[in-house]
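INTERNAL AUDIT FORM
Audit reference: QA-55
Scope: verify that the stored structure record matches its stored sequence.
Auditor: D.O.
Record contents follow.
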Amino acid sequence: MNHYRLQVALGHMGSQHTEYAVWHIATSLDAADVMANRGHFLPGVREVTEVRAVTEAEYNAVRRMGQQAFAVEPRGKQP
């Protein structure tokens, strides 16, 4: 499992406003696929603007603090 810190631009229906957020994710995808949002596995994301690898400990610490940290896999991906 790979762990990343992302900065994402969120797309809002009917709005010209772009909101940026920082997420931490756990996924089997590599950094290039995450940056390209290959297969649109991050719904609602207009653009991934930054991807940085983090340790599992950092990911878990962010998750324990109640911030945006979650596991995500592309649709149809079998474990």
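Auditor finding: record pair retrieved intact. The mean pLDDT is 90.
Action required: none
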